[in-house]
Structures are given as structure tokens and as C-alpha cells.
Design goal:
single chain, Rossmann fold, seven-stranded mixed β-sheet, 8 helices, 44% helix
Length: 216
């Protein structure tokens, strides 16, 4: 975690309580070591959604459906969420959780490789007011051009876990060999995203780091 843990815990104690079902999903995910969106990132995402009020949201990386359900609770009944997942075991859990939330009419789980799904959505001419990227960090740079095509004018790209537990600032030689590819690709993603003149981007060092990018 990038931020001081005591400060993060205090801020989290002031946050809006999660609905009971989300509390249960969070508990199970913690017990099973399944990564879900952190409290500080949830708070920021809730704030962004309140200001943007998008009609359509795209999530890359469903996991067990926690963040899709969370975003549905943060938006009005007119907002539809498409969410992509490729890992079979998590797909089953996500479907069960979405069904249990009673929000299956607003959350559309799309199975498949994210690159293939994104390319198909581009061909279909789909547009989204907000895209939430929370998938394999090494693939962010590959998804970026497709996300850019899928965002509507003024749309927001939210990228989670971009600071790699603070290791993003380290030299590649200080990173474990097995993590060096992810480290290099995330650095490339941040350089590319912040240099793209079609976006206005800020990097927020909260949780594991999150970027907000508005398409001009």
C-alpha cells in the first residue's frame, strides 16, 4: 500500500458502509486471496461516478463481480455496465454474485480475452462514459488504444493498481526478475498515458495508485 496504513484505515472508517452483500463478497475475497478494489479506490470511483453519471460503463477485469456490483450501486437505474472476464473459476463466482445482487439486468458479464472483446466492441461502435481498468497490469498498454476508441468525448478512463505497490519508482534492477516485465510495461503505460495529448491525466498515489484520464 502506498499510503500510510493508519491514515488509510482512519479514512476508510469515515466512508459510506458497503451494502451487506458486498461486505460478504469482500470477506470471501479476502479469505481466498482474490484481489478486489481497495477502499480508497472505491471512494474515489464513487466520487467520479457521482460527477460523471455515465449511461454506460465498461469494466476490464470482473474477478468475482465486486466492483461491477459496487458501480451499479453508485449509479442510477439507467446506467448499464459491461464487464469482461476470462478466468473460468472467477466467471462462475461473478455470475452467482451478480445474480445475488438482483442487478443482472444492468450488469452484462462478457466472457473472453479482453483484447478480443475490446476489439469486437470497437467494431460494434460501442461508446462508454467511463472505463474502469483493473486487469493484468502488463496488459494495460495493449488495452489503451482500444479503450481510447471506446470512450465517448469527455469520457473517463480509470486505471487501478498503477504504482505496483510503490515499486514503480524503483530501478528495474531493484525489482524481482519475475516482475520486471510487468514493471517495465506499467512504466510504459504511465509514460504513454500521461504524454497523450488527447487525455488529461492525473496520477493519485492512493491505495496501489490510480489514474484518472479524461478524453478531451
Amino acid at each position: 500500500m502506498i499510503e500510510d496504513e493508519r491514515t488509510a484505515a482512519y479514512i476508510a472508517s469515515l466512508d459510506v458502509p458497503l451494502p451487506e452483500q458486498l461486505q460478504e463478497i469482500e470477506k470471501r475475497a479476502t479469505e481466498e486471496d482474490i484481489p478486489i478494489i481497495r477502499p480508497s479506490a472505491r471512494s474515489l470511483l464513487r466520487f467520479v461516478l457521482a460527477g460523471k453519471a455515465p449511461e454506460a460503463i465498461l469494466e476490464i477485469g470482473t474477478a468475482v463481480g465486486f466492483s461491477a456490483i459496487f458501480m451499479a450501486h453508485c449509479t442510477g437505474t439507467g446506467t448499464v455496465i459491461d464487464t469482461i472476464e476470462n478466468y473460468e473459476k472467477r466467471i462462475a463466482a461473478a455470475r452467482a454474485n451478480i445474480a445475488g445482487s438482483g442487478l443482472q439486468d444492468r450488469i452484462n458479464l462478457i466472457e473472453g480475452d479482453a483484447t478480443d472483446v475490446l476489439a469486437r466492441l470497437v467494431k460494434e461502435g460501442r461508446k462508454y462514459g467511463l472505463i474502469f481498468m483493473d486487469a493484468a497490469k502488463a496488459q494495460y498498454i495493449s488495452y489503451l488504444p482500444l479503450c481510447k476508441k471506446l470512450l465517448e468525448n469527455g469520457g473517463i478512463l480509470v486505471s487501478d493498481n498503477v504504482l505496483f505497490d510503490g515499486d514503480i519508482v524503483q530501478s528495474r534492477f531493484a525489482i524481482r526478475r519475475r516482475d520486471r516485465t510487468i514493471h517495465a510495461r506499467m512504466r510504459e503505460y504511465l509514460r504513454t498515458l500521461t504524454a497523450d495529448e488527447d487525455f488529461t491525466t492525473t496520477i493519485i498515489p492512493s491505495g496501489d495508485g490510480i489514474t484518472l484520464s479524461v478524453l478531451r
